[in-house]
User: Fold these one by one.
Assistant:
Number 1:
Amino acid sequence: MIWTYLFKIRRLFKSKTRILSGSLHYFRVPKEYWRDRLEKLKGAGLNTVQTYIGWNLHEPREGDFIFEDELDVSEFLKIAKDVGLYVIMRPGPYICAEWEWGGFPAWLLTKENMIVRQTKSEAYLAAVQNWFTVLFSQLRDHQWSRGGPIISIQVENEYASYNKDSEYLPWVKNLLTDVGKCFLLKIINETNFFLKGAHLLPDTFLTANFQSVGNAFEVLDKLQPNRPKMVTEFWAGWFDHWGQQGHSLLSPTTFNKTMREILNAGSSVNQYMFHGGTSFGWMAGSNWLSKKQRGTSDTTSYDYDAPLSESGDLTEKWNVTREIIKEFFPKYINDSYVFRQSLPLSFMTDIWDFVHDNEKLLHELEYEQPSASKVSSMEYFKGQFSSPYGYALYQSQVNCNGENKMTISNLHSALSPNMTRVTIFVDKFNISTVNLIDDIIPDEIKFDCRSGEQKTVSFLAENAGRVNFARLDGNFAGLTDTPKFSSYFPLSHNWTQISLPLDELQLRMATTKATTLLVNETQSDFDFPRDTYIDFGKSGCGKGVVFVNGKNLGRYWSTVGPQQTLYLPGPWLKLGENEIIIFEEEQIGEKLVFSSVPRWN
């Protein structure tokens, strides 16, 4: 029962002390830095680390499971234990986390009648059960009852904000017990706004999420009287999305005040985030704006204005945390800790260069193109290069028949309200871009088209992050319906559809332009070069994605902001020559500018 678990937790900490935790997502941090970041968490006085599990990373294709390199969660847990930290595990299957589709793998979308987070979808339940069976074969022996660091498992994630099936959370809890063999304290966490609608289950413990205390503790006391209190997410800052004004901040003064309120209330606490890190690659998600009925894409940086910066540097909030813990729980402070500090550390391809290279590769490799009569979303592309991430190019030939203008319509139907950004070209000239940050999708777009001419119309669609909160079903990316053209006859229904995932295979085989970065260093606290940032705003670049030695650093969008730099971890560099490939959508810069610090506008 719940009291048995709580009694064991009390014994675990050997006194009246509490869980003092910080969130750090292993998949947002280079593996070489795991120990460094965990040592800094411990050095701030915290005794526990909290992490999500990203299902879409570990099972990118159905039945193909990955637990290596940055996804070696077992190694992460071993390091946490070695550092002297306990672990709160948040396996989902839904995690939100401003992560692509809240952690769900995109292949779920291809299942018939797929509905996530509900028991009426048998395909969904089967996929989750299979995933948890594999996942907990990795986690089972790391539980505290077996000598490991995991002291608690979360049941799903903030379900009261979704709350569409009263049988769903009990099903997840039973699955954790049966498949995961989780005989631990199970946490059900909710945001302050939805706390009263939370599901109370046997042998579970209800916790709260907030940035300011409000009446959260009063609500918790009413819902579960005489039980210890915990804040699973005290939001130490906030995330950014493209197009907002400035970097999201929470002042150290306010941070200090709220941390003290939480501890004075006798509550345990987890700082979300203690170290945000980076949503590398295509993994930044988006949030649903219900009033505008569209998504808004999150930035690559997940700095979160946290106690540790995106590159792992100590911030003022780290000092505040340490001072508070030293005051409330002095035994957790080890003044002998010495920390490694991140240390400071001057070409580009456009869409048509890359498509040209890609077309040559398609002749060499098996590629199964979707139906030529209508367009398909990215999830239904097949073949060696197909991917539900990155970009997709849709092309059709248009015969002009006497009008001076050609009209493209049906865009409201063709463009998913989820996070798809589309650039429209006519004969490789950009005539329009439907931006993620625009409030409306145009009814139609016109371009010059004189009688007798034939035009190639191209739609470059970007999956800029499936919605990770609130609107979770139907998160298709790319074109979801066929655009229509006025006054012409096919050629018209002959669509070419090409997947451009820009993955490691495609980059390695293409003859894309690249530049070489020379790194010559003799002094570093690590066995590799120092961290740096690429400043795309000062480089004169617009919007795109960058790869260093085959690693996808993520998206930049300096013309919109607020993020102007991309974090380049030192472990991904090597002494000597380093290959940099930049895929630019808007404008090509003259030089690449590096910086020792991040920058927002």
Number 2:
Amino acid sequence: MALAQACVIGLARGNEPATPPSPDTPRLSASALSTMSRGEAMVEAWRLRDEGRWLETLAICEALLQRDPADDDAYRLRVLALADLGASHRAWELYQARPHLFEPVIARRLQADRVARMIVWGGLHPVSPESRLVEMQAAQAALAGLTAKLAATDDAAVSRQRMANDELIALNTLGQHEAVSERYRQVVADGGELPAYVGAAVGDSLLSARHPELAVDALEATLRDDPEAHEARILLVYAYVESERFDDAYALMESLQASEAPWLTRAGARQEYPNWRRYDVDVTRVLVDSFAHALADAQRRAESLVSVGAMNAHLHQTLGSVYLQRGWGERGLERHRVAKTLDPDDAAPRVGEVQALLDLDRTAEARRLLAELIALHPENLHAQRAQQRWERRQGWQVNYESAWGRNTDDGTADTAVASPLGSRDSRHELRVASPLFNDRWRLTAHVLEANADFEGERVHHRLFGAGLSYVHDRLQWGLEAAVPTDDYDDGTTVGTWGQWRFSDVLAGRASVYLNEPLASLQARRAGISADAARVRLDYTPTEFTTVQAGLEHLRYEDGNRRDSASVLFDQRLTSRPHFLLNGFGGVQAGRGSREDAPYFNPTRDASLELGLRADHIAWRRYDRHFRHRLAVSAVNYWQEGFGAEWYPQVRYEHEWQLAAGRQIGYGVGYARPVYDGVREDRVSFDLRVAWGE
């Protein structure tokens, strides 16, 4: 609809009269017309047309043709008046009946007007989704035919340029955004300019094709020619956002809000005053806030709008998108389904519904709805990106993690370090999951290798394992087994884990392992393995807050029973488009049943941690980004028999996202922990690679 309006603007400007008629100018009466001769009536008709009074011109022509249907002059002027009024299709029909009455330049103008009108129709709301592009495809075919017939006349270049501009609008509606982008680049390279009425269509295609800087140039040029081009102003806000120019986006938003009167409703105003331009501004503000990590503000604005426009499908869809960004899959799904019910032909609610179902692991249901979406809207880029996410989710999943550490205690040689981690340690793990089958199951395989040096002896632990995982709706479940290949333990590891999502904000997880693969390497050095059981609750009311509470029980072969409990939190303190500041920390406590275990096993211990983490997005381009994080915390560790000590922890990391589902991260850390009253220095490095959904 918006692009159709842009086309209408272009047509209106092409037909604008040099001198608009005055509303006080008297109309020619039927009795006066009946007393005029044919010649006098034709002179009057031409005069009225020159003044832009096309309806009165048309009335005279109709009267003359009633007198004499063979009057070619009246017939010709009637066609021209219809074209002036914008009745392009009717003018073209009448032209075809008597083409010999029109000069070639007029004939080309009539045909171009008809094609332009077809483009307008092609952008209007369709009768059905299946017929959405039929009229626009017909318009494009007619435009191509007209271009091919253009003769080498004086006005041919002008005609070709106008048709090229009209075709940009058609290509935009047909979703051929790269073609629009290439043509825009060629116009810029040739030193040309586009008329303002096609600026919004070109800007929309440049954004859809992910060329935001070019979109900024095109839309700013449009607004220089037509500062009141509303759609171009809205699109420029998005172009600034997608160019990561949030300050410019917010400045333009403030200007737009100040320039548009508020939308007044009957409940709060003396009279109802709908302002659809202000509606566009308000919805755009919601989306800009969501892109800038101001999701709480976005939610508040969206819910306020929905409370007024409860039957507006677009508002429900917008609110549903905000809910999904906040991690509320169930609430987001509900809103998108309301929007689809209100407007079943719109692609956006369907895209949101598929995204919500994928977030909720309702894969089979998402499969069916995605097939319907692609069948109805094959050219829609958001639908195509939902399909790409689906394909990533269905395919192979690969995760690799490595970590290295070095520990030294004050004034002690490396080989004498008594740290439970050893003087040097490393851990490497590769996990691979097969493509999803039956929309729920994956086969898994993993390799784990852990090493640690204790007083000159290296403990080496390697596992090869395989398993099966299941995910559907609220339930995730997995089973795996692994065989060691080291000299310290020959017991097979068998484990199972499960997770249940109680709601959008609460999930629980439990696991049980025989021959726990992450048990102390100090204990493994002594030939002692352990079984483990863990439970955890994750509470995430919003993306700003996360609280985890967990219990762990380790049952060692030497009879030692070690229990621990923890409560961890992470709280967003500051949100900016490219900067996030979080506070984090937690409380942990544990106890062991043996005092003489040949590994680090405090009879009682506890710790308190408080810290800050700064997260800066240094560069971002749609699905790709580079961000770095610095976390600093202070830990107070208490161990029975040794008292309490404070020590610092610092970690700095980089994260590169090379594409959607393709991520590399690495980081370095430093800490000064205390074990058995001895302070140590620990330096660590880690690497992470993720490939898949």
